[in-house]
Amino acid sequence: MDEAEERIATANTLTPPEAVFAPVRSQTAFEETVDRLGTAIKLGLLAPGSQLPAERELCGRLGIARSTLRQALTALTQSGHVFATRGRGGGTFVSDPQPPADPPSAEMLAQWRETCDQRLAIELGVAVLAAERAERGDLDALDDVARTLEAAIEDFTAYRQADIRLHVGLAEATRSDRLVRDMTEAQGAMTDLIGYIAHPPTVLASSNAQHRQLLAAVRERDAMRAVRVMSEHVQATEHILAGLLPGG
Amino acid sequence: MDEAEERIATANTLTPPEAVFAPVRSQTAFEETVDRLGTAIKLGLLAPGSQLPAERELCGRLGIARSTLRQALTALTQSGHVFATRGRGGGTFVSDPQPPADPPSAEMLAQWRETCDQRLAIELGVAVLAAERAERGDLDALDDVARTLEAAIEDFTAYRQADIRLHVGLAEATRSDRLVRDMTEAQGAMTDLIGYIAHPPTVLASSNAQHRQLLAAVRERDAMRAVRVMSEHVQATEHILAGLLPGG
DNA sequence: GATCGAAGGCCGGAAGACCAAACCTTTTCT
DNA sequence: AGAAAAGGTTTGGTCTTCCGGCCTTCGATC
Q1: Which residues get their CB within 7 angstroms of nucleic chain D?
Q2: What angle do CA B180, B115, B26 make, to 5 degrees?
Q3: For every one of its 248 residues, what pLDDT tens digit does chain A have, with 9 covering 90 and above?
Q4: Residue B162's closest CA among A2, A3, A4?
């Protein structure tokens, strides 16, 4: 016992991780709401033309006051992501021609590697849990998305859209809301990073082959194979970024 | 092209993930600070008796006002986690006999499975990236921790402490601050969950065998083996919880 | 055609969180 | 004795958020 305590004591003498004292990011409810809805729109999870829940209902679901929600909606209206119509039968809708994405910010670029690391973690977790929990219907739907993906190899915008649906759909198949949220955030960050770089069809084709293998592994409940494929899939993107971004 | 667009349109007709409209948790700076420091102390990352940075420096590092930091420190003082001495050479220190952990809250228990899912993801990501990036020195230090772990098999408190150091240490070896932060949060949540359940030495012994295999795999840069071992390691805990908590 | 109801669009006050910048008190080191 | 370094205190102001009521629009229904 003395021996154990001594080892613990020496182990604890190590300096604490500096992450403990890193800045706290206290996002306001307003910012977080703009982010949530804006990301969902950018990713196409809220389709162009689709209607958002009524303000009086949505603020309840988001757990914020209606005035705060309206601030967020005003911001999204001004940035051209949504528009509102009044009167009965009116509502807030996702704009049809989405505004062009804005270029990645400096701090976004500075943290791109950590963003990829975090994404890798989420994707691997999703791969394992989807292999355990995905049901037949989930996989059939994902196969549809994969087919869409293969048909869109020449149109990067359409491709990216379907790609997101596939990854988020896999997260949904884990039945874990938290992983869906994390996946959404991660894909939003990735979109910011890769939106401006070229993706030749050959790259997309190889990506599609991985999607196929991934879904096959999940269908066979082969978690480890799913992880291997997913790891290669994600790190392929990372290698592309490494060649184009600073610090690569 | 028409074909592709049509498929995308049908794919987007699906209902958006309800996670999009889930409540926003806008934690205040005060809450987040209490959480960060409190978790670091509970996990032993800030050792009993060790000194925190001076208030005037710490508030700068955390990016908050001193008065806000003091609110957090006051809360931690009242809960018995830290104490302060005045005058030159004084400071804020981690209390030596730590207050007993409080039992897991209801919502904590309600979300235990999602908590485990998220932890699994982070641990898998850490396993892969540590296998790629860990350096010799990191691994030697982790071997030390593993030895501590094996000597502490009869004392769950000491065991848990070293266990945390091992997992967080592995995260540090990825050189990704964000993963360190996520790992810390995940381990904090796990501590809340498992603090109150019995862990017979046989379970800890089997856990230790997995730690050994994990470190060996990382040392050999065998990412896939590291993932497999880590997955089994994490899911073993999950199975224990499943037998004891509601909804298992 | 009048009315109802559901939706977005306002406004004003109250409460609280956060910040900034002082100043005070205690203790130790020089 | 005094300077320095730490925690402790006070004050005032800004910004965010909430609550709740009210207004305006306009399709649906009677």
Answers
A1: A 28-31, 63-68, 71, 85-90; B 26, 52, 54-56, 66-67, 70, 73, 84-88, 90-92
A2: 75
A3: 444 444 444 444 468 888 999 999 889 999 999 999 999 999 999 999 999 999 999 999 999 999 999 999 999 999 999 999 999 889 999 999 899 888 888 889 999 999 999 999 999 999 999 999 999 999 999 999 999 999 999 999 999 999 999 999 999 999 999 999 999 999 999 999 998 787 889 999 999 999 999 999 999 999 999 999 999 999 999 999 998 887 76
A4: A4
Annotate A2-67 with DSSP letters as a single string. Answer: HHHHHHHHHHHTSPPPGGGGSPP----HHHHHHHHHHHHHHTTSS-TTPBPPPHHHHHHHHTS-HH
Round to whole Å and give the CA distance between B215 and B24: 38
Alpha-helix residue ranges (DSSP H) falling in B134-222? 136-151, 156-173, 177-194, 201-219
Footprint of strand C on the protein (CB under 7 A): A 26, 52, 54-56, 66-67, 70, 73, 84-88, 90-92; B 28-31, 63-68, 71, 85-90
- Å from A86 to nearest chain B CA? 22
For residues B128 and A116, is the Cβ–Cβ distance under 8 A? no
CA A1 to chain centre: 47
